[in-house]
Amino acid sequence: MPLFSSPFAQLELIRHPEQPNEPLQAFDAADEYLLSHLAEQGLPAAARLLVLNDSFGALAASLAGRARVTSSGDSHLGYLGLTVNLARNRLAGDAVDFVPASETPQGPFDWVLIRVPKTLALLEEQLIRLHGQLAPGARVVAAAMVKHLPRAAGDLLERYIGPVQASLAVKKARLLFATPEKKAAPVSPYPTRYRLEQPSLELLNHANLFCREGLDIGTRALLPHLPKHLGRIRVADLGCGNGVLGIAYALGSPQAEMTLVDESYMAVQSARENWRAALGERPVSIRAGDGLAEQDADSLDLVLCNPPFHQQQVVGDFLAWRMFQQARAALVKGGELWIVGNRHLGYHAKLGRLFRGVEQVAATPKFVVLKATK
Question: Where does this polypeptide localize (predicted)?
Fold first, then answer.
């Protein structure tokens, strides 16, 4: 296993969820560059340091015990990665305070280290929340691999923090140094909202939601074909996003016992608020989780899923395949997994390896809706 070396520590780090023969590392040159800069500048042990969007804990774990470290991000899988990597390296679990991106980290912070996220709306919301949380003389540094660093990231830093200076590129990574200046309290443009006609819903979407400005076309293909049950059926919306599939299903199945789960804290926050607006105090379990990893075996009758095709910047079907395996374990015999996916991903064949029956319920030129029976 490759070691992650920095002036602060040498660590064994894994990506989470871990997969056999993992071809990717849990860190990159942008993490190395950021920590090298921090070491050059000097880090007093009493410094309060905030790390934003630390994928699997490379930054926070390196700095654990070297300063008062708070880590914040929107990925529950990232949080689990941090927890696992602290334990692997015999670091105290409470050496880093973790704050979900749905909440505001409480400063004042002397340093803010930012990994530029894929969704710039998340970066914007995080920068807005830094207002009033920076100590006098605080330093704000963002890092990314050059290929993942849009010009707009620097524009956001300048708008909400202050003047920005870019570093030279090192190992295809770059740093952006933002000098805090006094600014009026910003007004966040998030959450956003859009309306659906069928079912009639207004859906709220916090900053890091996929397809925040309107219903994504995969979900649009699945919605008209959702099954309806009048009995007390146990249903999970797996990777629920803003909750639209679970809410739409619940509206047509008034006795269903619903669970909505997503690895994004902002998705869970959005789903909770949307459920309350559409269904009031109807009982529901809405949680951040590693898919259905915590769900009891044979405890569900139906799983609905519009699976993701990427984890952060990495595209692939690893997470989708894992979600299918989790669904199979959680379903009772005869239970059903309903999914929507791009035609070219070949989910029909993949599901056929796990389930005794797979049938196509509907199709568009781009998507297929599949029902897999355990």
Answer: Cytoplasm
Q: State pLDDT tens for residues 125-158.
A: 999 999 999 999 999 999 999 999 999 999 999 9
Is the pTM higher than 0.90? The answer reads yes
137 backbone φψ class: left, alpha, beta (φ>0; ψ -120 to 50): left
Give the SS3 label for residue 237: strand
Within 10 A of 249 (CB to CB), how many other CB atoms are there? 23
φ, ψ for residue 110 (rounded to 5)? -85, -30
Cβ-proximal residues to 265 (8 Å cutoff; 6+ apart), any chain: 74, 75, 76, 100, 101, 102, 288
How many CA atoms are closer than 13 Å to the CA of 150, on its beta-carbon side?
10
**What does the block give as tokens for 162?**
């202050």
End-to-end CA, the chain: 37
Give the pair of three-digit tokens for residue 242.
């803003």
> Which residue type occupies 358?
V
Output the six-digit token pair for 177.
């140094």
Contact predicate 91/64, CB 8 Å: yes
238-261, pLDDT tens digit by residue? 999 999 999 999 999 999 999 999
Residue 320: its pLDDT value, please? 86
DSSP letters for 288-357? E-STTTTSPTT-EEEEEE---SEETTEESSHHHHHHHHHHHHHEEEEEEEEEEEEGGG-HHHHHHTT-SE
- CB-hemisphere CA count at 13 Å for 8? 25
Residues 164 and 154 sit within 8 Å (Cβ to Cβ): yes
Domains with residue ranges and CATH for the chain = 3-178 (3.40.50.150), 192-373 (3.40.50.150)
* Regions of the chain short of the pLDDT cut 50: 310-311, 313-315
